[in-house]
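[Amino acid chain]
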Amino acid sequence: MTELPPYWLRDNCPCAECRDPRNGQKLFQIGDLPDDLAIAASAELDGNLEVLWSDGHRSRYPLAWLHEEAGDDGRTEQGKRLWTAADFARGIPEADWASYLGDPAEQAAVLAAVRHSGFALLRGVPTADRQVLRVAESFGYVRVTNYGELFDVRIEPDPNNLAFTAEAIAPHTDNPYRDPVPTLQLLHCLENSATGGDSGLVDGFRAAALLRDESPEDFAVLTRTPVPFVFRDRRTELRADRPLIDVDALGRIREVRFNNRSIGTLRGDGLESFYAAYRRFAAITLRPELLLTFRLGPGDCLVFDNTRLLHARTAFQQDGHRHLQGCYADLDALSSTLAVLHRRTAALDGIAELFAGEGAGEYLGEPVTMAEHMLQAAAAAEAAGAPDHLVAAALLHDIGHFHGALHGRDLMRGRDNRHSDTGADWLARWFGPEVTEPVRLHVAAKRYLCAVEPGYRERLSEASEYTLRVQGGPMDDRESAAFAELPGAADAVAVRRWDEQAKAPGAATPDFERYRPLLAALMR
């Protein structure tokens, strides 16, 4: 490990001196590191590489992180499913709109399909004006263009684009004359009673990969020849000079721009070789086995990668009405939302493992397990009609016992383990203060109630009376007055009361999965 370049290793030091623990951003400039930086000593301990640097700084790197392979930004062909129509013989990636909104796992599956296959279809989206914007806002931001924040795809009396006619539209990407091009497109069907007008998709990355396999010279021509894409109407003049196939520094396909209607006039050398390559690529995009066809019905909303997929439409007759509303968005926001969903899923999986594993252990001498106690507290909060953030706080109030002094061993040995602070600090990575502060204050709330509420202390269990003494005993008048003024005091008192109720052996107790959607909705 110590053979790694020292500046790379030091530049990636994860400690709080080098990176802001809230956002991971670096707190130093690369030029701040000494010119003679070297590793003074290193050792592998407990799954980490520990490094002492020549300037006295110490770093600690997880070995698993050091062994990770290089990735990319998710925009290239790497890791994607390059497909033909036959690959979806058993159905296309789709989900019900209500399920997508209500289930983070379903939303993650839809967004992952857009990332990996290039598209997904949402069914049952309300056929209301501007609803397509709500779909885009469910994972990102609407990209406003000269067409507005949304556009209507229907026959127009004076169209500025062939999409607004009944003509057939060959496979193409949208807005190639923009730089940057809108990376996502959404099409929401409001009505489709006309004969014809079926939709089609072609995986442009697959078409480009076929060109690379069949004619590497033509592929190279299309990656290095800038093409003038142009759009003009009475109010707009747009131009972007970009290749039909864009690759990254490692030669991986990253973007396809293909729109015969918008190609301007190429000039200069190499025109013959370009047109030979262009025609070959165009012929590949029209291969029947690459075209996936389907019909959008009312309530269907198609989300697809406009830098990868070519979309098409058959001609339709004017014996009915065909009306879609569309908008543009961007992949970076979708990828961000997907990453956050995965991060939340991993966090919830970790919490669930605590409940299932360590949670099965004894709870401070009480006749219930740790998990039973916390789940009973959440059930009590729910039965009382508490808002979601307090149900979550009741569920997670003793999570600090799982960190550091597991099962409260230190606490039962006469030493305050400050589990309320430990738990609140740990939960703050995912939850806001509406959840974490009642957790942080629930021990103080017991001390407060014992001081101000006659008879409260006498109702404590034997174990709770013991921990009260370890944690400082009842508050004095000054402490009680100060606690009552805290913003989260009332919520903490409520959690404390449910805490005391949640020690019933054999009581019907919900499982953790019952509260998983509630926690997911509250996570930041």
The first strand starts at residue 39 and ends at 45. The domain at 6-66 is CATH 3.30.2020.30 (NE0471 N-terminal domain-like). The mean pLDDT is 91. The chain has three domains: 6-66, 94-337, 357-522.
